[in-house]
Structure formats: C-alpha cells, structure tokens
Amino acid sequence: MNKDEYRPPVEEQPRKVELERARATRWRWLWLPGLILLAVVLYYVWPRKGSSKATSTAPPSAGSSLRASGVAPVDATKAWKGNIGVYVTGLGAVTPVYTVTVVSQVSGYLMNVFYKQGEMVHKGDLLALIDPRPYQVMLENDQAALARDTATYNNAVVDLKRYQVLVPERAETEQTLATQAATVKSDAAILKTDQAAIDTAKLDLVYCHITAPVTGRVGLRLIDPGNYVQPSSSTGLAVITQIQPITVIFTISEDQLPEVFTRWRTGARLPVDAYDRTNTTKIATGYLETIDNEIDPTTGTVKLRAIFANNKGSLFPNQFVNARLLVEMKRGVTLVPSAAVQRNSQATYVYVVKPDSTVSMQMVKVGTTEGNDSEITSGLSPGQVVVMSGVDKLQEGTKVRAHLEAENTGTQTP
Predict the structure, then answer these.
(1) Res 234: pLDDT
(2) Reduced to 3 states, what is the DSSP secondary structure of residue 241?
(3) Confidence (pLDDT) at 158
(4) Gap between the Cα atoms of 410 and 250, Å rounded
(5) Are residues 220 and 163 in the same domain?
(6) How many other CB atoms are there within 10 angstroms of residue 383's CB atom?
(7) Which residue numbers in the chain have pLDDT < 70?
(8) Mind listing the pLDDT tens digit for each residue in 44-81?
(9) Domain residues for 14?
(10) Quick one: which of 96, 88, 94, 97 has its CA closest to 301?
(11) Which residues pair with residue 113 across a beta bridge?
(12) How far apart, in whole angstroms, are the C-alpha atoms of residue 303 and residue 323?
C-alpha cells in the first residue's frame, strides 16, 4: 500500500454513504415536477401540430386557385342603347295658388260655425252665420220708406199732369208747372235712394251668411261662436288654402337659365318632379308653369314656378322639396352603369372584357349622368361588356372570370 494514499477512517464511511443517499433523493424530487411540466406541454402542443399538418395538407380553395392561376373574378355588364334625361335641380317650397283669410263684411254676433277644422271646403259652402236680425229690420224699414216715397211720387206725377192741362188754358202759371216738374224729378230720385238702401240691406243679409270664396282646405278656427265680429278685424274667421292644384316655387342658377328658357319659350311642356327633403322619394309630378322676370343679383338664381295637380294631397303648403326639371330626353344613346366609368388625372376609361376573357383599358367620353347610369358619347358601343367592380386588381391584359349582370333593357321615360 502506498503510504501517500489516504484512506478515511472506518467510522467516517457510514456517514459518507448516508450523505450520498440524501443527495440522490433530493435530485429525484427536483426532476419529478419537470417531468410533469414536460408531459403537459406535450399534451397541448402535439394535437396543434397535428391539426396544422392536416390543414397544410388540405386542398387549396377556389379563390386561392384563381389567384394562383392569375384569373381575377369581376362583375360585368353589357353596354346598352337607351334613353337618358337631362335634368336641372333646385331647392323649392310648396306654395298654394290661393291663400284666403275669410273675414266678415258686416258687424254682428257670430251665431254659428258650420265647418270642421282642417276639412276640405268648396267654393260657395256656408262657413259661418252672423246674426241677421238687425239687417232684416233695416230692410223692412227701407222697404216702408220706399212705399211712402212711391206714394208721394205718384201724387206729384198726377199734379204735374193737371198743371200741364191748366197752363195752356191760363188757369195756372208757367212757374207752377216748372216747380211741379222739379218736384216729380226730386221724388223720383228719392225712390232710387230708397231702392239703393233696400239693396244694401239685402246685401248685408247675404253677408251675414259667410261662404267659402275658393275651394281648399280650411285651417284652424280663429274665432268662436258668440263673439262680436267686425269688418275691421285683422284676425279673420278662418284661412282657406287651395291645394288642388298647388305650385312649387324653386330656384336654378342663372347659368342654367338659357337652356331652360329656350325650351320653355318654344311651348314645350317641361315635366317637374318634386322629391322630399332627403331627395330620395318622389312625391309628385307636374310641369313648369312660368319663369320669373328677373335674376336675383345677390344669389345669382332665378325663380321658377311649377304646377301640380296634387290629387292625393301629397304636397303640403310651405313644405320643403327638391325640384327636378327635365330639360331634354336623349334617346337611343349608349349607356353604362356609372360604376363602370373609371377616372384618373389624365383620362376617363372603362375596362372592356374581350372574347378571350382578358380586359382592355378603353378611353371613353361621358355625356349626361343621371342616377346610376351614364351616357357614353364615344369610345364604346352597345353590347360591349364592361367591368363594374373589381377594377382595383386589373391592368391591361388581365385574365378575368366575369360574372355578367342581368342585361339592361334600358330606357328612362319622363
């Protein structure tokens, strides 16, 4: 045995063995949580990898195939031949032809009202009654005065005839005859005055029965029965507004006036459509009646009046409307949806689908645009297929798969 080799004492060996056993046990407990954590991770991660693998092996979708093959799906339609209108629009308000405030023409107590508020009344309908008795008494008094003055006149006529016989016989003087002739004329004038008083009393009796001067809708009652009314009252009894027919006064710019005035002066009946405040719903259709005689220098606009039958009462006085005046109807022109027309800083163009399913950029000139349709004045013919949507991914020669919209029959009528 080498004297330099160290050997622990016999009593230290059991202690060393115990320390090694304790160290092994400690490491065993440290590895156990790690193994559990690894098992959990493998449990959740392993299925995802499998599903991802399954997804990666799934067949590609149709859209992916189209993109991979360079074919772009687009919506398209055919250009067609049709009619399109040239419109001038303006803001306006519904204005009645007549608005009448009904007032009394005689003084007296209002005995009765015969109309219902808000109802339609016709010209000549009885609206209210003023106490007629004072005027009936006045009529009778005037009739009595006429009878009295008639008797006086007849007596004067008899005397005049007698004097006309006596004067030639020198039984009466010429002066007496002349005086009697003047008396007869004076009595005749009195009879006319009495008759005028009678006519006035009869007219007052008529005025006691207040009737509608026009046909229209009567508004709210302004005075109740039992009140004393006078002709000088500014309130009136009721307001009647004619609504059939009714007019719309609207404005257009002075730049648009020459074209409208030229067409109107030739006697053309220009249709006018009235739309609601949002300019989405058509309320009624009428025609241009007249044009104002001056341009407003502060706004550069001119007023136009259109008349509407308004049989359904859809237009209401003072209602705000958008007026669309049809100046001209272009017939037999080439039309496309406005969505098909593309623009950049240099040109206006459309994408035309060729028979080989490729697209070609074609320059066009656009005329009138109305609603969703545009007139093409040059560069396109009816029957050619143009792209409406999906143009952002197109360029010259792009292969497309066009979904063709239903063919437009295509005429707009006023």
Answers:
(1) 80
(2) strand
(3) 93
(4) 30
(5) yes
(6) 11
(7) 1-35, 37-70, 406-414
(8) 655 444 444 334 333 444 344 444 456 888 889 999 99
(9) 10-52
(10) 88
(11) 128
(12) 12
Q: How long, in residues, is the chain?
A: 414
Q: Is the bond leading into 33 cis (omega within 30 degrees of zero)?
A: no
Residue 360 and residue 340 share a domain: yes
Q: Are residues 293 and 249 in the same domain?
A: yes
Which of 208, 238, 268 is the C-terminal boundary of a domain?
238
Q: Are residues 227 and 274 in the same domain?
A: no
The verdict on 306 and 369 lying in the same domain is no
**Dihedral of CA 228/234/239/244: which sign?**
positive
What stretch of H or E contains 43? Answer: helix 13-56
> Percent helix, strand, coil in the chain (nearest 5)?
35, 35, 30
The answer to the question of residue 39 being in a domain is yes
**Residues 92, 321 contacting (CB under 8 angstroms):** yes
DSSP conformation letters of 147-194: HHHHHHHHHHHHHHHHHHHHTTTTSS-HHHHHHHHHHHHHHHHHHHHH
| Predicted local distance difference test score (pLDDT) of residue 61 | 41
Q: From CA 339, how far away is CA 405, in angstroms rounded?
A: 13
Give how many domains the chain has, as a whole number: 4
Q: Up-side HSE of residue 182: CA atoms within 13 Å toward CB?
A: 6
Looking at the structure, tell me whether residues 115 and 228 fall in a common domain: yes
pLDDT for 303: 95
Dihedral of the CA atoms 205, 209, 212, 218 (nearest 10)? Answer: 150
Inside any domain, residue 369: yes
Of 278, 298, 330, the domain-final residue: 330
- Contact between residue 334 and residue 375 where contact means Cβ atoms under 8 Å apart: yes
Q: What pLDDT does 30 receive?
A: 58
The two three-digit tokens of residue 190, written as one number:
């009195």
Judge if 260 and 221 occupy the same domain: no
Whether residues 340 and 350 share a domain: the answer is yes
